Amino acid sequence: MKKYIPGRIAALQQKLSELELDAALIYDRENLIYFAGVSDVEGGVLCIPAQGEAQLFCLWMEAKHVKEISGLDVQGYPFPAETQSTQAAKWLAGLGLKEPRVGFTRYFISLKDYQCLKNAVPGMVVGDIALPCYQLRSIKCPEEIQRIRSASQALAVGMEAAIAVAKPGMRESDVLAEASYAMGKAGSEGSSFRMQVLTHRRQMLAHPYAGPAPLEDNAPVVIHLGATVEGYTSKMCRTIFLGNPPEECVRIYETLKKAQDAAVAMLRPGVTCHEVYEAAAHAVEQAGYGKYWVMEHIGYGVGIRQSEFYPILAKDNHVKLEENMVVDLLLPSIYVPNIGGLRVTDTVLITQEKAEYLTQFLR
Question: What pTM, to 2 d.p., does this model score?
Answer without folding.
Answer: 0.95
